[in-house]
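Milestone 3.1: sequence recovery, worked example.
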């Protein structure tokens, strides 16, 4: 009978070693898995986190692990649930396996290593740059390490397959037919012998057996009917069945597998969006990165549980699990909570001609390992893959291969991909998948918020039969505050305004098959130098440590959640200079009454769930908002001068806005690129600087960034000083002296 033994404890770790050890090392560090070596340097900025090979070693005694049982007529496998990005695995100095792809499960047969009961396991894990394994360029940290569980699996010689792309050996395909469901259960076996049988059981959510059948072990496919099936119906009713299969010989169970599954139908309509079980079911939700402050990607179950609870509190119906395969436990939670999932591989930002085989293997692992999850409805082929310009023939062929592969492996689900905003609407690669979504940041990276909805309307008009969604949109916010929010100020107030506007535009367009906020949580991107805290992307609705829900979180809760609440925005913005100040309140109830210093001030109704009050600001003012049985409280204080703790201060910035000279009537680094470019002299200066900045000595574009016409339109809304803080993400390096020199030239050009 199968035994699964966790091996997470007492691994020796070394960043300094140069080779796998032949004996158990004595001077390495002891670590417990999950583990990453980048939990600190991958989050502190500078784009200098360690990317290379590190080593893990562990000595195991099989007799001890099996509580004294002898290993006879059995097979032993080591299971890695995540080793980022590539790994070489050794037992007693002998190389057993190599694996490329840091986000999926893989297993190795090590039976022959236990002739003497003891074995030295060693793993060389490598997250260094290369041209064959994705991801290599993206706006997040590629944490190295054995950051998920490692297990020893002991099975009989006849067992359910453990080596086919990390799968579980069982695949369940439900098909809804009227009030019933036709269930196909396929099993995959190794070393089947004559006389062996398979025993199939389908159980309902209460554990009652609803179907039980036997067959010869050679008959690995069962078709059966669940009468009056209980549907998996998203957040409303995420009902799960369980399929169990036993491999039996002479009445003895040799091996068994089980999986939960859900019975649901869905389709994606280009006019009416996502339809679940025949009913329109708008997909409005978030994207999720997995990492955390001081932990990186080495998560424990409680971290996944906290994330899913926060996403459910928001009221989301969908999650885009970006930009890689997430932990199986998180997919299980999505099944249980009824969240509809977009799952994807890390084929991202830059197409690598040498990486095709890796996209194929990672896609096979994603589909095989996650086939049974009812929450997953689309497989993502790529993300922003034309970041460097238009698609080419090799990129097109790679996408066609992946699209065909997915449809061959899974005939029940659709394909999709996330397209970078600057991509041309008629680029041929857009026509490959079943659905598409766009990553647009109008109102943050150039443009303004009002551009988002009309842009999507135009695309929808061009391709009315192609379902379109919004896969990324967002805006960064830290603990900076203002009563006059502006694009690029990183204040919580501008983020709240941005999302109010995007909610009103996106949620009222029913043709959008899905919308995903970028991002649910702040996450690490070590190359970033923005917003006053380097190494981070602060577009999250919740902070990196999950301790603070930004005001924008409650804007979504007001539209999506059915749990009554009221929330006063700006609680961290207490000291205010103006005599009359704007107080914003969010609620999913139709009416809010505001009390000022204990007295009723004003009642408002709003169909948009956003309420705005202009409140006198004098001395200390106590504010209370009441909606139905819900209430929330805050306070403001009148001050004579602006509290500088609320103003953005860049940590380690190349240059801050207040360091820049601004002669009246002349340009400076604090002006928008579009305004500078509109001036003949300014345009000429900028064109020369951009050409020099974006070129290497060989004249080619800098890796990871293409300066085309659409890019320039996007960048027009940036000030040059803001752009300077983002150049690290573009693989462009400039100095303070260079920027001040540019400012001096701009100071000579009249506006």
């Amino acid at each position: 009978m199968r035994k699964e033994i966790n091996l997470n404890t007492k691994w020796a770790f070394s960043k300094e070693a140069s080779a796998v050890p032949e004996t158990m090392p004595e001077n390495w560090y002891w670590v417990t898995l999950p583990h990453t070596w980048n939990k600190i340097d991958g989050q502190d900025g500078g784009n200098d986190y360690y990317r290379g090979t590190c080593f893990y070693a562990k000595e195991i005694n099989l007799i001890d692990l099996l509580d004294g049982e002898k290993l006879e007529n059995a097979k032993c496998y080591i299971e890695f649930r995540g080793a980022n990005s590539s790994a070489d695995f050794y037992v007693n100095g002998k190389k057993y396996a190599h694996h490329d792809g840091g986000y999926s499960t893989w297993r190795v047969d090590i039976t022959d290593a236990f002739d003497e009961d003891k074995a030295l396991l060693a793993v060389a894990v490598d997250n260094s740059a290369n041209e064959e394994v994705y991801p290599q360029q993206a706006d997040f940290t590629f944490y190295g390490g054995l950051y998920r569980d490692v297990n020893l699996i002991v099975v009989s010689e006849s067992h359910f397959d453990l080596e086919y792309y990390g799968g579980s050996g069982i695949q369940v395909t439900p098909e809804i037919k009227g009030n019933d469901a036709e269930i196909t259960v396929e099993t995959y076996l190794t070393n089947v012998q004559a006389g062996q049988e398979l025993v199939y059981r389908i159980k309902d959510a209460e554990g009652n057996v609803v179907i039980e059948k036997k067959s010869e072990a050679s008959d690995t496919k069962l078709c059966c009917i669940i009468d009056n099936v209980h549907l998996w119906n998203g957040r409303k009713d995420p009902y799960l069945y369980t399929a169990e299969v036993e491999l039996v010989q002479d009445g003895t169970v040799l091996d068994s597998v089980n999986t939960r599954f859900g019975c649901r139908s869905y389709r994606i309509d280009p006019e009416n969006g996502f339809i679940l079980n025949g009913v329109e079911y708008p997909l409005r939700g978030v994207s999720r990165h997995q990492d955390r402050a001081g932990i990186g990607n080495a998560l424990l179950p409680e971290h996944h549980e906290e994330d899913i609870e926060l996403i459910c509190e928001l009221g989301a119906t969908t999650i885009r699990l970006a930009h890689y395969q997430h932990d199986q436990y998180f997919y299980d939670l999505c099944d249980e909570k009824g969240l509809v999932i977009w799952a994807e591989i890390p084929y991202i930002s830059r197409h690598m001609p040498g990486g095709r085989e890796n996209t194929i293997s990672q896609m096979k692992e994603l589909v095989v390992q996650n086939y049974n999850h009812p929450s997953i409805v689309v497989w993502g082929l790529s993300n922003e893959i034309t970041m460097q310009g238009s698609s080419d023939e090799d990129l097109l062929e790679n996408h066609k291969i992946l699209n065909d592969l997915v449809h061959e492996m899974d005939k029940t689900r659709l394909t999709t991909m996330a397209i970078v905003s600057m991509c041309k609407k008629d680029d041929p690669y857009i026509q490959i998948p079943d659905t598409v979504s766009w990553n647009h940041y109008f109102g943050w990276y150039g443009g303004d918020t009002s551009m988002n909805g009309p842009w999507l309307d135009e695309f929808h008009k061009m391709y009315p039969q192609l379902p379109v969604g919004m896969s990324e949109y967002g805006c960064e916010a830290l603990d900076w505050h203002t009563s006059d929010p502006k694009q690029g100020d990183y204040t919580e107030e501008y983020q709240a305004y941005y999302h109010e506007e995007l909610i009103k535009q996106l949620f009222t367009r029913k043709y959008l098959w899905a919308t995903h906020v970028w991002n649910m949580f702040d996450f690490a991107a070590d190359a970033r130098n923005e917003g006053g805290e380097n190494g981070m992307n602060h577009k999250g609705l919740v902070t990196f440590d999950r301790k603070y829900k930004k005001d924008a979180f409650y804007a979504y809760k007001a539209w999506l959640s059915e749990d009554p609440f009221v929330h006063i925005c700006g609680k961290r913005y207490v000291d205010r200079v103006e005599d009359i100040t704007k107080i914003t309140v969010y609620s999913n109830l139709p009416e809010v009454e505001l009390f000022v210093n204990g007295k009723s001030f004003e009642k408002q109704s709003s169909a948009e769930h956003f309420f705005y009050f202009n409140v006198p600001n004098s001395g200390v003012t106590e504010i209370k908002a009441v909606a139905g049985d819900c209430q929330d409280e805050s306070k403001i204080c009148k001050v004579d001068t602006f509290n500088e703790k609320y103003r953005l201060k860049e940590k380690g910035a190349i240059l801050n806005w207040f360091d820049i000279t601004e002669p009246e009537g002349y340009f400076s680094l604090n002006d928008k690129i579009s305004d500078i470019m509109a001036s003949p002299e300014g345009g000429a200066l900028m064109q020369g600087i951009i050409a020099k900045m974006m070129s290497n000595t060989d004249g080619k574009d800098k890796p990871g960034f293409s300066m085309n016409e659409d890019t320039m339109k996007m960048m027009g809304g940036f000030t040059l000083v803001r752009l300077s803080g983002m150049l690290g993400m573009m693989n462009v390096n400039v100095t303070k002296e260079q920027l001040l020199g540019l400012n001096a030239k701009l100071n000579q050009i009249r506006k």
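Residues 393-409 form the longest helix (17 residues). The mean pLDDT is 93.
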